[in-house]
Write a structure and sequence with these properties.
There is one protein chain. By secondary structure, the protein is of the alpha+beta class. The protein contains 11 helices and 20 strands. The protein has helices at about 1-10, 20-30, 75-80, 85-95, 160-175, 195-200, 220-225, 240-255, 260-270, 275-285, 310-325; strands at about 35-40, 40-45, 50-55, 60-65, 70, 100-105, 110-115, 125, 130, 145, 150-155, 155-160, 180-185, 205-215, 230, 235, 240, 260, 290-300, 305-310. The strands form 5 sheets. A 7-stranded antiparallel beta sheet has the order 7-6-10-4-5-9-8. The protein has a 6-stranded mixed beta sheet with strand order 1-2-13-3-14-19, with helices on both faces. Strand 4 and strand 5 (about 70) form a beta hairpin. The longest helix has 15 residues, at about 160-175. The radius of gyration is 19 Å and the shape is globular.
Amino acid sequence: MVDRIDRWLHVPAVVGFEEPLLATIAGELAASGRRSRRVAGMVVSPGTDGGWISTHSDRHGLVTKGHGVLGYAAKHEAGAHRPLSRSLGRRVCDRFVGEAVYAYDPGTGERLAEGGVDHGSHCGVGPDISIEAPGLAELEPGLPVAFAGGARIADSLVSGQLDNVASVAIAFELLAAGFGGTVLFTVGEEAGRSWRGLADYFGDRELGELLVLDTSPFDDPEPCGSGRVVLRRADAGGAFDAGFVERIAGAAARAGAPIIWKDALLAGEGRPLGRTELGRLSAATEGRLNGATLQLPTTDYHSNHETTSIGAISNVLRTLGRLFDL
């Protein structure tokens, strides 16, 4: 599992430019004997048994703006109607300072140029960010720029740009264990638009048991260290399918996996509940499409040092095994 995460972290998938990883996912599905097809930009691996799983394949990154300046890819994808706040822009800048990056061909993933965002680089913050990246000055505008590097393992912890390669790898582990349902590898989640592909795929169908796999950020390392799995009964978009949520909670209990309820934690701290792919989908379809989330706790969210534990990964897999009788 960790080997797969490491391998895929070397395949770029900046939001809006996910083709190299999608092609890799489709190729590995074919090699394992699973069918796949493209629908609304996604890779869908249809199954014959019940069960629906969604996990987004895109990751955060940058995009060239010309003259060695880089912008935020999620902002590029979301469009002018979603300007960055200064606080988010500052956090994004901080995540890239000191990191090695590379520009790639959006179709093939071939590296076009390598560079870095050094500690002396200027980062302007406005409606978008403007990061200086020596080494990428000659590139034309509109090319994706990804974090370099793979997974790092130390003291039973796994680090790297985990969101959301970790969940894609978990889905593959589930398939290898005999899951016969359908898996949907969505795109554009980091720009808030992956729900549209799901809505297009399901059409007029009613579904209350879509399971969305993802990572979930924590400032406190305790959820990772104790191997917790993260569940929600709701997000800012509304309530999830209560019966399905409780079934997953029961599966976690049978698997011996400790649970942390993210919505209850946030509400108790007086913080917003946040939005998930599932919450956006449910709100947009007025609850016709709904389900539950199962998330992996991490720290250093959306950075090249996002970290979880082997124990948390194992407990997510055990919970899924109990849920689907694998």
